[in-house]
Amino acid sequence: MAEEAPFKAHEDKEAEGPLVKxxxxxxxxxxxxxxxxxxxxxxxxxxxxxxxxxxxxLISDGLKGGSIxxxxxGLKVVSLEDPTTQCDFKQSIIRNxxxxxxxxxxxxxxxxxxxxxxxxxxxxxxxxxxxxxxxxTDDLGERFGDRIAGTIVVRGKNNTIE
Length: 162
What we know:
Elements: H1 24-42, H2 48-59, H3 68-73, E1 75-79, H4 89-109, H5 115-137, H6 144-149, E2 151-155
Antiparallel strand pairs: 1-2
Helix pairs in contact: 1-2, 2-4, 4-5
């Protein structure tokens, strides 16, 4: 007999326990906010901006209370093994490394006139599309980064670990 997951589907609004699977839209908006913050950091001159933006996107979920976008939306990233434990910096770097790869693709291909920008845009669309499909179709709402890091995004009451 298979063990039941400790998470409830998002349709069950009155789920027992503090952890509830999130909606795709909630996660999309939270990540969009984080990408806006990353973009603002990129505006700093010289190499400081890109380094700060990339660092933020990599470690953001390991910050106390989670990333700024997730805090605003009311989400948190927790360890799948122990849902009472917040995602640490190592897990955050692992789960968000796909976005760092996209930044590297930007720097490698972005210099090519016209075609480079198109390829970078298509790579972002492809990755975000695949991640959203995984979030939507997975029973626990895990995207690729969550699967390799052993994490899950849940709704958090007052953004604290219960």
